[in-house]
Amino acid sequence: MARYAVLIFEQETPNGVADIPPEVMRAHLDLPDRIAAEGGRVVAGLAFEPTSTSTSIRGDLVTDGPFVETKEALGGVFLIEARDLDHALALAALTPIVNGGVEVRPLVDFQVVEPS
Amino acid sequence: MLAATVRVTRDLDTAEESVQDAYVEALRAWTRDGVPDRPGAWLTTVARRKALNAVRGRETLKAKLPLLLEPEEAVVEAGDPEVIPDDRLRLVFTCCHPALSREAQVALTLRLVCGVATADVAHAFLVSESTMAARLTRAKKKIAAARIPYRVPSAEELPARVDVVLTVIHLLFATGHTAHSGRDLVRDELTGRALDLARMLRHLLPGEREVGGLLALLLVHQARRATRTDAAGRLLRLEDQDRSAWDRDLIAEADRLVVATLSAGPPGRFAVQAAIAALHAQAPSYPETDWPQILTLYDVLARLWPSPVVALNRAVAVAFVAGPEAALAEVEALERDGRLAGYRYLPSTKADLLHRLGRDAEAVEAYRAALALSDNAAEQEFLADRIERIG
């Protein structure tokens, strides 16, 4: 199995996580089971506070906000195991999305996540 | 041979090296022992053996190996190694994977499926050899790092994935057919490769109707290739071409494919384009073409494929069915839409309609706009000639 990061990009809403519709939230909570049912595995998942809470450091300059301003902001990342890119894309497509999309990125073999 | 070898290595670079090594060994062995009965099979067997050795050598580095070979695939199967259609099909789908950029898909297909040398691929796409080599390397790295699989897609993915492959083949043919720059309008090499690919796909995926549609479309274009320019190399419009010089056998073959494809179920965009091209090819002359039928087909095509280019071509049919005035209105609407800004066939179509309406001063202006957008020598000559005649 190969490992991929699934980066979730969503348009931000005023109240962040509180604005996520309940059915989308439920779908997020179900995601590991649905991915397992398709022969993959969720290794880890991270959800981010809105970019308004973010702070960036470039050289020695500290600024408020995200490192890169985009219409859809990085809202979270989860790591999956999949057989190949087609499998990974099929699993990533299960991610509940309101107003944005996901990016699938292969990981180099470099362990920084606690084995679960 | 590469297709059969990459199945062993699961890695394109190693497969290419193994094939090269096989040729080197052939030079030695065939000089010593004479050429074997089936040289292709001999080469494939040797290439796959070398690939297996290379893969086994790397097994010690197993943890680092990006693409592990599946055990059941390491067994070199019995039968004629030259005829493993699945392998070529897998290679096509890997090269045309939607996770790769269009330019990478086209370059990989030419290099790996058709076996065209990198320098020639670079030449076809008007970039330097080093640029093309870098493009191929990046694409192969992505295949390895992201683990783009080497397999035929599942039945439910197949139509969308076949569409990508057909688009790549069509682009190859179009690049060969109408070179954007340079003196040679037709690059026979590319059109021939594209036709071979379409025929191969038709053979390997007989159930995919759009494959038949694309093949028919390419056959009609190919049937007319000799008449697209005059003796001096100038571009000829469809209406000015010598229809008696069209290849009737190719047109008949295309027509059989179109009929078979259309009768098998709802058509896709390639089948409809082929039907339009076949109607043109069968018409005794340009004015005697079945324009109402062509307009109907363009309506179908516009629904399947809502593209402003389709709308522009539809406008030409409108001119014959409803008159140049109605067609001009549609072209001007497209002009306002803005998506075709920089597309040279928009002003040239407009110029033609204006000329037919007797508005020659405006027609010349539109031909000048088209001339400014064209970088193809044959097209430039054609447009300059039109300006001279009308102006």
UniProtKB/TrEMBL annotation, chain A:
Gene3D superfamilies in UniProt: Dimeric alpha+beta barrel
At the top level, the lineage of the source is Bacteria
Q: Which InterPro entries match?
A: Dimeric_a/b-barrel (IPR011008), YCII (IPR005545)
Segments forming domain YCII-related: 6-110
Task: Give the family per the record.
Answer: Belongs to the YciI family.
What is the protein name for this chain? YCII-related domain-containing protein
Species in which this protein is naturally found:
Umezawaea tangerina
UniProtKB/TrEMBL annotation, chain B:
Instruction: Give the Pfam families listed for this entry.
Output: DUF6596, Sigma70_r2, Sigma70_r4_2
User: Which GO BP annotation is one of this protein's?
Assistant: DNA-templated transcription initiation
A GO molecular-function descriptor? DNA binding
Output the superkingdom of the source species: Bacteria
Tell me where in this chain the RNA polymerase sigma-70 region domain is found.
7-58
Question: From which residue to which does any coiled coil extend?
Answer: none
The DUF6596 domain extends over 161-258
Q: Which residues cross the membrane?
A: none
Q: Which residues form the RNA polymerase sigma factor 70 region 4 type domain?
A: 93-143
Assigned keywords, A-Z? Sigma factor, Transcription, Transcription regulation
**UniProt keyword Hydrolase present:** no
Instruction: Name the protein family.
Output: Belongs to the sigma-70 factor family. ECF subfamily.
Protein's name according to its UniProt entry: RNA polymerase sigma-70 factor (ECF subfamily)
Taxonomic lineage from the root? Bacteria, Bacillati, Actinomycetota, Actinomycetes, Pseudonocardiales
